[in-house]
């Protein structure tokens, strides 16, 4: 894939669409890029890919995606286009946030794009909405291993990450069992517990902690001690990155409320500082929890952070199929002149939802979700 300097020769006559991937990478992105590219080329269109998300669009770094560039990428993890977390309406600079949307609009016009496809998660949907407000024709596809994008059952990358996290929990069982230890596995998901709950349940974790259910460490310790009393001296605790104790959740909610009801800049600043401090303190939460469980149960405790391994590697068949279905459908919608929408899934059905309904709307795990009900039936401790 060679970088291009000039606009595609025939861009004046042909329909041309742009595509970018933004936010954290995830397996299955290349399946979506391939599907968009092949379907669009099949219609006689030109396709350009912006490098590194919105940053590439800002700097006008792009490549023309030809058929040969789309070969052999279906099974490759990550994104061949690269990604970044730049927010065009609030780009961070040493002097504070700056709105650079007009520059992206200029790039869009320079390439005479008919539409821009943005593949991303929560942040990308906010960015896409802000760009659509500037008059760009945008279609989005939902992607994140966290599965927390609203108005879609699934997001590109979630299924693969679920497999990886489940496999990790399987592997932790034998070592925890051999050493009679508690092993806490940290699973990605800052604001939603889909991955931790799914992998925890599939891997048979004894305790599953998610952001939606604030935990009481004494209740977790009591559950582990009951296992010991029954003769099982090891426990696996699946912990979502964003899981917090009841006390920490209260402090966090109070700070968020204070930010929301702030009536002047000083109050807003204070609330932001408090939230930043709570976030910083939360970074080693799992180690604190391991120490607490060690003290309360007397069992040796260890931590395993699954981290970026969950986002890497070959996409599962589910993510390849999801990326392919969403990618092909998104080009059909563009051909129909439908913009300002996210193409998602509801069961087997492909759906379209206005981006305005998706942006800023987090899909958390409902407390009465079948996964939670099943976990409770099985006697899995959820920290409450
Ligand atoms: O993209 C979602 C996610 O993988 C989260 O689960 C995780 O908390 C975050 O990204 C990590 O972000 P970064 O790649 O910026 O470190």
Account of the protein in words:
By secondary structure, this protein is α/β, with parallel strands linked by helices. 42% of the residues lie in helices and 15% in strands. The strands form two sheets. A seven-stranded mixed β-sheet has the order 3-2-1-4-5-10-11, with helices on both faces. A four-stranded parallel β-sheet has the order 7-8-6-9, with helices on both faces. Helix 5 crosses helix 6 (194-202) and helix 8 (246-260) packs antiparallel against helix 9 (265-282). The longest helix is centred in the middle third of the chain and has 22 residues, at 158-179. The radius of gyration is 23 Å and the shape is globular. The mean pLDDT is 96. The structure holds 6-O-phosphono-beta-D-fructofuranose. 6-O-phosphono-beta-D-fructofuranose binds at residues 23-24, 85, 121, 144-146, 188-190, 241, 311. 6-O-phosphono-beta-D-fructofuranose is lined by residues 23-24, 85, 121, 144-146, 188-190, 241, 311.
């Amino acid at each position: 894939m060679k970088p291009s300097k000039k606009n595609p020769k025939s861009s004046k006559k042909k329909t041309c669409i742009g595509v970018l991937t933004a936010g954290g990478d995830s397996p299955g992105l290349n399946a979506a890029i391939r599907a968009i590219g092949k379907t669009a080329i099949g219609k006689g269109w030109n396709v350009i890919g912006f490098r590194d998300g919105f940053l590439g669009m800002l700097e006008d770094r792009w490549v023309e995606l030809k058929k040969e560039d789309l070969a052999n990428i279906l099974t490759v993890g990550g994104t061949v286009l690269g990604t970044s977390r730049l927010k065009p309406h609030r780009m961070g600079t040493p002097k504070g946030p700056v709105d650079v949307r007009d520059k992206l609009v200029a790039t869009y016009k320079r390439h005479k794009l008919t539409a821009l496809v943005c593949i991303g998660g929560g942040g990308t949907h906010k960015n896409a909405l802000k760009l659509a407000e500037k008059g760009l024709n945008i279609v989005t596809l939902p992607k994140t291993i966290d599965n927390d994008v609203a108005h879609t059952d699934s997001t590109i990358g979630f299924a693969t990450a679920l497999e990886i996290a489940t496999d990790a929990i399987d592997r932790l069982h034998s070592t925890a069992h051999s050493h009679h230890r508690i092993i806490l596995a940290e699973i990605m998901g800052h604001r939603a517990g889909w991955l931790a709950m799914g992998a925890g349940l599939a891997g048979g974790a004894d305790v599953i902690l998610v952001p939606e259910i604030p935990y009481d460490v004494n209740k977790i310790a009591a559950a582990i001690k009951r296992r010991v009393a029954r003769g099982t001296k090891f426990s696996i605790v699946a912990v979502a990155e964003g899981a917090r104790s009841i006390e920490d959740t209260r402090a966090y909610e109070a700070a968020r409320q204070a930010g929301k009801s702030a009536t002047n800049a000083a109050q807003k600043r204070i609330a932001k500082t408090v939230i930043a401090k709570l976030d910083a303190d939360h970074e080693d939460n799992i180690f604190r929890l391991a120490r607490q469980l060690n003290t309360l149960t007397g069992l040796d405790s260890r931590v395993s952070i699954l981290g970026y391994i969950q986002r890497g590697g070959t996409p599962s068949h589910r993510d390849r199929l999801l990326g392919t279905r969403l990618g092909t459908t998104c080009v059909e919608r563009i051909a129909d002149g439908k913009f300002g929408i996210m193409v998602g899934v509801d069961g087997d059905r492909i759906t379209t939802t206005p981006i305005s309904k998706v942006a800023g709307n987090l899909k958390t795990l409902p407390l009465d979700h079948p996964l939670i009900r099943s976990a409770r039936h099985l006697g899995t401790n959820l920290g409450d």
